[in-house]
Amino acid sequence: MDSILVRGGAELKGEIEIAGAKNACLALMPATLLSEEPLTLTNAPRLSDIRTMTMLLQSLGAEVQNLAGGKVQAMSSHAEITPIADYDIVRKMRASNLVLGPLLARLGHAVVSLPGGCAIGARPMDLHIDALESLGARIELRDGYLHAKAAQGLKGARYEMRFASVGATENFLMAAVLAKGSSQLVNAAREPEIVDLVKCLRAMGAQISGEGTSTIEIQGVDRLHGATHPVVTDRIELGTYMLAPAIAGGEVECIGGRRDLVASFCDKLEAAEIEVEETGRGLKVKRKNGRVGAVDVVTAPFPGFPTDLQAQMMALLCTADGVSVLEETVFENRFMHAPELVRMGATIDVHGGHATVTGVERLKGAPVMATDLRASVSLILAALAAEGETLVSRVYHLDRGYERLEEKLGACGARVERVKGQ
Ligand code: UD1
After folding, report:
1. Which residues of the chain have pLDDT under 50?
2. What is the pLDDT of residue 422?
3. Which domains does the chain have, with CATH numbers?
4. CB under 6 Å to ligand 1: residues?
5. pTM score, two decimals?
6. Where are the alpha helices (DSSP H) in 346-395?
């Protein structure tokens, strides 16, 4: 297994191009199952999670071609589609569950293994099941698989979600676009990735309104057609690289970055004495003056502070001037990076869904272990400013969500290298 070696202490200067959003692309790719005509995604990120989704779609009978070095995904589902999403692929990534809605819409039945993914809490599927059942499907769990059937076809319905789940919103949308009649999803997720999925579905002929608000209306249509759609910028990659100069010092311009994608995160950066400038090409970030200020952070569904930036924000606050409290409300058990940061000299006290971080002047390099995707990058960020060397092991998580991280940070002067495992 590969590791990443970071030699801390180098200030950063330069620009980093932000890729298309992993989480948007993972929802957009299954949309190919909804039409027999080709769906082409441009600005796709080159990540192992995208390769996993490619394998899953191919196993279902879709054609997926990576063009332009992986930046373009050319897909087609004109051939016969099989309804079974096998455990061997699904277990690699929770987002595999996003084929459930499209398979139901296309075939009227689906057999999808329960997913795996990052070990950040229970992550059940009840909201997906309830949302799809509201459209007339019946779903049973047998032998680790969800067996879904819509014997009479899917029918439009009003469904109110108890929590604004991103994945359940996406599955509901992709099922309702081909259902008979109109649907309304109340307490829908409002994330930019949802808005991006709606844009793509609309380009395919779907009739949807209200995306980006908590009520989405869908008027079912008989069929969808082909489309070409550019994947929205990855706001989590953006936030991660915005934190690099905030932690290590210097100035980095994140090309393609948009403030509206990370507004609540920018507010917290500014409260921590970090300057965020909109340049027309992206967002430029540097520290205002000496030490970072302490801030309290509560994660929440969009437009709140993203849970996927909580670990990286904690890395920043480890060296802030004062005490910060981070509260995680989206996932339980999402502080696995805290004990690793403590190995680097941080002072963090985790109590339930809260982590109290008492800033120290400086972290020190240490051997640490990545436990999930965002945790692994938080350790790399922390290591950028730590004294000495940090070896982050088990970085396969990182390759799920960050393309060419060593290169992107290295181009700004960071000393980050991959150490190949046996
Ligand atoms: C997506 C993102 C993930 C991000 C998360 C929250 C993708 C591929 N992944 O994950 O990176 O961290 O949104 O912003 O887009 N829940 C239930 N029952 C369900 C579904 C979810 O209780 O049926 C709970 C989960 O356990 C979790 C919370 O709802 O506590 C949020 O989950 P959800 O919004 O569904 O996240 P994902 O779509 O899995």
Report:
1. 118, 120
2. 60
3. 3-19+233-419 (3.65.10.10), 22-230 (3.65.10.10)
4. 23, 26, 94-95, 121-128, 163, 165-168, 193, 307-308, 330-331
5. 0.96
6. 373-385
